[in-house]
Design a protein that fits this description.
Layout: H1 2-17, H2 22-31, H3 33-51, H4 53-59, H5 61-88, H6 99-116, H7 129-150, H8 162-182, H9 188-201, H10 211-214, H11 228-261, H12 279-295, H13 299-333, H14 341-366, H15 374-406, H16 412-415, H17 420-435, H18 445-449, H19 454-467
């Protein structure tokens, strides 16, 4: 640097004596020809130290202090040379060096490299690659900024505001990296992981809102990591994906339940002895999982997913009702099968009450409003229809069994000692024991329907003919 200053002073004096004497000026320039190379070599060493600033400040902070002092001295010389040029028109070769500006460019590149270098896994090698990447990134950024706050700020002049500079550098680098990730063909679970990290983790006390950092910078002043249009696009893609997935899951759950309807063993019962199948539990466990995931993002999105679940539920229950009718029709073709037809029809009826209770529980837990919706009315109406149909099918089953024996009453065969009444009593008692497994309020439906059943009316007509 002393050689450089000597060269610059000599060239300035020559310029003052005779600004047009390029020959003597070139003699001085050539004599100090290696000075420029030494300056460039020094700059390379400075940039190498700055590229490893986070590591260097931990091991040897005095080296970083020396680098900053050199850059500060060169900045002062730059300012002096620029002032001289304004006054005299002369400026030595290589000035201004603008090493301070270049220092920040090096630091920016270092931060970008640090962020980009956190990814070590891909989807092909690890399904949790994005979760791991985001967690590693969170840890690195928090650790680095803590080092900057506690160690690096002491190596720079206060007017640099070095912590705020690093804070902004990391934010910009993260924003660029997150936007790259958002542009990839992310799967549904990856979209949730990314948005949860962006919208919640990033500004939480686990990262940029950490108490050690919050005292220096206001996270509310930061620009969003992702533009709102990109957030909306990811949310829309997620909704489309889970809508398709839920449709498939519901279809599969119903198919599995239908297979159970044909079993030769009775359905399971709850703690009170009411028949039931696992369908409501499976359906609402699936809804619950999706809502828990959505809640990680924000309340508004959780409400959207709840609306989607209830809308899917409406369509699903229509299929449930249709399959119940098919189940009944197939049974009537050969009434000996399935062996547990009555018990599973009771379970189907009971499931309606479980579905209603589960819908109410889900809304109470996840909805921001208690106002009823069109989906609520459609769900309630369809469940009532399924239960009503099921009860009617059960009554039809009873009277189909009794029809032959009722026709024997008050006939010569009956007077001759047939056992029609005994058979009727046993049959009714048997069905009564099964119907006791129907939940409220549906266990009262059968009673109210007995008088309106077509088969019962037929039996009444037959008895009236006999007595008349």
């Amino acid at each position: 640097m002393d050689l450089e200053c000597s060269r610059d002073d000599l060239m300035y004096e020559q310029y003052r004596l005779d600004s047009r004497n390029t020959h003597d000026m070139n003699l001085i320039r050539n004599y100090f020809g290696e000075v420029q190379g030494l300056s460039e070599e020094l700059a390379k060493q400075l940039w190498m130290v700055l590229q490893r600033a986070i590591v260097t400040v931990r091991r040897d902070p005095t080296m970083l202090v020396s680098v900053v002092r050199i850059i500060e001295r060169e900045e002062k010389i730059d300012r002096r040379m620029l002032d001289r040029r304004r006054q005299t028109g002369f400026i030595p070769p290589g000035r201004p060096k603008a090493w301070k500006e270049h220092m920040f460019q090096v630091l920016e590149g270092t931060v970008c490299t640090r962020i980009e270098g956190t990814q070590s896994e891909t989807r092909e090698s690890d399904k949790m690659w994005l979760v791991r990447l985001l967690e590693i990134t969170r840890k690195y950024v928090l650790d680095d900024l803590t080092v900057v706050k506690n160690l690096m700020v002491q190596c720079f002049p206060p007017h640099y505001g070095i912590f705020r500079i690093f804070f902004d550098l990391y934010h910009r680098a993260l924003s660029a990296r997150i936007q790259e990730l958002a542009a990839e063909d992310l799967e549904a679970n990856e979209i949730v992981s990314l948005l949860t990290w962006v919208l919640n983790t990033y500004t939480s006390i686990e990262m940029m809102g950490h108490p050690e950092l919050a005292a220096e910078c206001d996270i509310n002043e930061l620009e969003p990591l992702l533009p709102q249009d990109m957030v909306d696009e990811l949310l829309h893609k997620y909704i489309q994906t889970i809508s398709s997935n839920i449709t498939g899951w519901l279809r599969k759950a119903l198919e599995t339940d239908k297979k159970d309807w044909k079993r030769d063993t009775e359905p399971d019962a709850d703690q009170d002895g009411y028949y039931q199948t696992s369908l409501p539990a499976i359906v609402f466990q699936m809804f619950e999982q999706n809502l828990q995931v959505a809640a990680q993002i924000n309340e508004t999105f959780k409400e959207q997913v709840l609306h989607l679940c209830l809308k899917q539920m409406t369509s699903f229950l229509q299929r449930y009702r249709e399959e119940t009718v098919v189940y009944k029709d197939e049974h009537l073709k050969y009434r000996q099968l399935p062996q547990c037809y009555v018990q599973y029809m009771i379970a189907i009826i009971n499931n309606c009450q479980t579905f209603k209770e589960s819908v109410n529980s889900l809304k109470k837990k996840y909805s921001l409003t208690t106002e009823p919706t069109q989906n609520d009315a459609a769900i309630d109406r369809t469940l009532s229809e399924v239960a009503k149909d099921g009860c009617q099918f059960l009554l039809d089953e009873v009277f189909l069994d009794l029809e032959h024996h009722l026709s024997e009453l008050l006939t010569r065969k009956w007077l001759g000692g047939c056992h029609a009444v005994d058979t009727i009593c046993v049959t009714v008692e048997d069905y009564f024991n099964d119907f006791a497994r129907i939940k409220k309020p549906y266990n009262t439906v059968n009673s109210s329907k007995k008088n309106s059943s077509p088969n019962m009316n037929k039996c009444k007509t037959h008895l009236a003919d006999v007595f008349l």
